[in-house]
Design brief:
The chain is an all-alpha fold. It has 15 helices and no strands. The protein has helices at residues 2-12, 16-19, 22-33, 38-52, 55-63, 66-76, 88-101, 105-109, 116-125, 127-133, 137-152, 155-163, 166-171, 182-195, 199-206. The longest helix is centred in the C-terminal third of the chain and has 16 residues, at 137-152. It is globular, with a radius of gyration of 17 Å. The model has no long low-confidence stretch (mean pLDDT 87).
Length: 207
């Protein structure tokens, strides 16, 4: 029943009229996002991703304080001791939503100061995620790089990227290899371009 509830809300997200109900549905989705049943968590993260596809949906999420709750849930399920292969789709939906939310400064600001960049950096730079997520890791790493790239355009986002030494971590995704995708190279280039505007960013690139 809870899974169906989240799926139904997600089906309304593509409609302008349907999106109006989310102001009343957010509290329910917050609860479902931390449900003990993985299927329910996946359904609720899918509903939030669907809502984020539209600019109006992103605005409603920002005004409702939803990204702040989403990143807490994301971090909680992607820590080394907690991350599971079965959580990959749930994490992917949340990351896809973050990509859309961070197209605006207002969206980026909801994730600043909440260890979002620190966590994304940990996922792309440490072996635990690659080992646990296996074949799901490349897509999750790609999305982490994309969100970091979006956030790096913002001044404070740039500062956080430099603080957590994103340049050194992401640079390996530019190296030509069988695992590197075009999207990885593009996202990493965006990060390097944005952070190089900052003096300390320049210094980290040179180092």
């Amino acid at each position: 029943m809870r899974e169906q509830s989240a799926l139904l809300q997600g089906s309304f997200a593509i409609s302008g009229i349907g999106r109006q109900i989310f102001d009343y549905a957010f509290e329910n989705l917050k609860e479902l996002l931390e449900d003990e049943d993985l299927r329910v968590r996946e359904a609720s993260s899918w509903a939030l991703y669907r809502l984020s596809v539209n600019e109006d949906g992103c605005q409603r999420m920002v005004e409702g304080g939803i990204p702040e709750f989403m990143i807490l849930s994301f971090i909680g399920h992607s820590e080394p001791k907690d991350i599971q292969y079965t959580d990959a789709q749930y994490l992917t939906y949340l990351l896809e939503a973050f990509v859309n939310i961070t197209f605006s400064d207002a969206g980026i600001e909801t994730l600043l100061g909440r260890d979002a960049i620190k966590q994304f950096n940990k996922i792309i730079g440490e072996d635990f995620a690659r080992e646990k997520l296996q074949d799901k890791f490349p897509k999750i790493a790609e999305l982490c790089l994309r969100v970091i790239g979006n956030m790096s355009i913002n001044h404070m986002g740039k500062e956080e990227c430099i603080e957590h030494k994103i340049i050194a971590t992401s640079f390996v995704y530019l190296a030509l290899s069988e695992d590197r995708s075009y999207e990885d190279a593009l996202n990493t280039s965006l990060i390097l371009m944005s952070t190089s505007i900052h003096l300390e960013g320049k210094n980290q690139i040179v180092d």
